Amino acid sequence: MLPDIEIESICLTRDATLRDALVVLDKTGAGIVLLVDGKRGLVRTVTDGDIRRQMLAGIELDATLAMLPPREPHTIGPNASRKDALSEMDKESINQLPVVDAQGRVEGLLDRREIDAQILLSTPHMGSSELEFVEEAFKTNWIAPLGPNVDAFEREFCEKLGLSHAAALSSGTAALHLALKLLGVGQGDRVFCSSFTFVASVNPIAYEKGEPVFIDSEPGSWNMSPIALERAFEASKSEGWMPKAVIVVDIYGQSANMDPIVALCDHYGVPIIEDAAEAVGTLYKGRPSGSFGRISAFSFNGNKIITTSGGGMLTSDNPDFVNRARFLATQAREPMKHYEHHEIGYNYRMSNILAGVGRGQLQVLDERISARRAVFDAYRDGLSDIDGIDWMPEPEWSFSTRWLSCCTIDEGRLGIASQALHDALADDLIETRPVWRPMHCQPVFAGARYFQHGNESVSDKLFDSGLCLPSGSSMTKDEVRRVVEAVRNIVGLG
Ligand SMILES: *Cc1c(COP(=O)(O)O)cnc(C)c1O
Q: Does any domain span residue 125?
C-alpha cells in the first residue's frame, strides 16, 4: 500500500503566515504545505508557486494563509492503489497527492518519487567482477565467439557445480535442441516431457519433428510425477513403442524426484535429458541438478538466477556428447584449413564477451541462492498466519534455490483468487506471474497425449491457483516487506 509520511510536519492552519509556509517548505523538502482547519480537514494545498504569486502581487510575508484564494484540492482516498494515485498525478500534472479520509481529514501525502517504484518478478543482478572479465576480452580483442572466457566459463561451471563436461551455448533452448540431436531424436520419435514447464523444454522436440508426450507433476515437488511416468511407460510398452528420450524438468529451482524417475528410465532403457534451465545450484540428495541427465541443459537467460543476458550450457558425463555438441554448435565445421562441412550445423556457441559475464556471475552464485531463499523465507514468515496461501513444498531430498517464490492460492479459504490477487498487486506496482501453464493445455500442442498423476491433473490445479511473487536476489528488505504488506492489505489482514 501507500508509504507513510510524517504528516503533522507539513500541515498549517489559516492563522499561519506565508513566511511560516516558506519555512515548512524549506525544512521538509516535501514541496507542498497542507492548509487544514482545526480538525485536520484539508482546505487547500500551498506550493512555492502559490507563495511566489502572492509576493508578486505585493502581499507581505507576514500575511496569513487565510487570505489565499480558495482552491479545491486534488486528493485521493486511503484505499487507493499506487496505480490510481499515479494516474491521478499524471492527470493533474502534480507530484504530490494528499490522502484524505471519508470525512475530508488529511491522512497522509503521496510523493511520486516514493510510489513510482515497480517491484519486478526477477531482474538481472550483476556482481563485481563481470566487467573485469569483459574488459579483459576487450583488451585482448577476444570479441569473437569462442576464446579464453568461454573455455574458462565451461571449466569453472563444472568445478562450481560438480559436473563433468560442459559446452557453453547461446541459450538453454539451444542446449536442449542439441541434446535431442545427440540422442538421435528425429521425425516421428516420441519424447516424454514434463508438462508443467516453460515452452522451451518442448519446442526443440518440434524442431526435430518429434512428438511430445506430456507427463503430469506430483504435488510434493511440482515436478514430473514418477507415478504418471510409470503409467506412460506401461502404456507405451503395451502399445509396442518406446520414447526416444525423457525430458525431466527441474522447475523454479527445485529438482525433480530423481531416484524413482531414473530407476524407471533405466528399467525401460530410455535416456534422460535433464532440463535444469531453472536449477543452477539446485541439489537432489546433495547431488547437483544437471548430473542426472545423460545430457543436461542450463540457462543463463536474463531472468534466471545467474545470467549472461542470454546463454546456456550443455553438460554431460560423456565427453563425446559435449565435444559433438561444440561441433554442431559451430556450424558443424570440420577440423580442416578451409571451411569443410559434412553435415548440417548450427550457430549456437556462446560469445567470449558473454562468457566473461558468466564467469563473474558464477562467483556470486552462492550469494544469489541465499538471497533468493531469504526472499522466500520472508514471504512465508510474513504471511504464515494467513489461511489460504500454500507455499511450493521443498521435499526433504531437495535443496531448492527458490529461483522464484511460488505459492498456491485457495480461493475458498483466502477469499480471493490468484488471478485477482495478481491484478490487485499489479495495481500496487508489484509484478507477479501465474505459474507455468501446462504444455498439454497449450493450443500449439493440442492433441498431444498426456499422462496424469491421479484422477485429477496436478499441473492443471497448479496453474489454476499458482502465483510467482517477486523473487529477485537484488530485492531490498523494504521491497520484500512492501510485497508482504500489500498481500496482507489485499486479503484484509493489513
Ligand atoms: C528458461 C528456460 C529454458 C530456456 O532457456 P533459454 O536460455 O531462455 O533458451 C528451458 N527450459 C526451462 C524450464 C526454462 O525455464
A: no
H/E element, 97: strand 96-100
CATH code of residue 453:
3.90.1150.10
Which of 60, 82, 115 marks a domain boundary?
Answer: 115
Residue 276 counted as domain residue: yes
Does 3 have pLDDT greater than 80? no
Q: How many domains does the chain have?
A: 3
CA 261/CA 248 separation, integer angstroms:
9
Residue of 121, 223, 275, 307 to test ligand 1 pocket, by largest number of atoms within 8 Å of CB:
275
Q: Which atom of ligand 1 is nearest to the CA of 174?
A: 9
Report CA(278)–ligand 1 centroid distance (Å).
Answer: 7
Q: Tell me: the pLDDT tens digits for 176-185?
A: 999 999 999 9
Ligand 1 atom with the smallest distance to the CA of 300 is: 7
Asked whether 275 lines ligand 1 (CB < 6 A), one says: yes
* H-state helical runs in 39-164: 48-56, 82-92, 112-115, 130-139, 148-161
**C-alpha of residue 172 to centroid of ligand 1, in Å:** 5
* CA 228/CA 212 separation, integer angstroms: 15
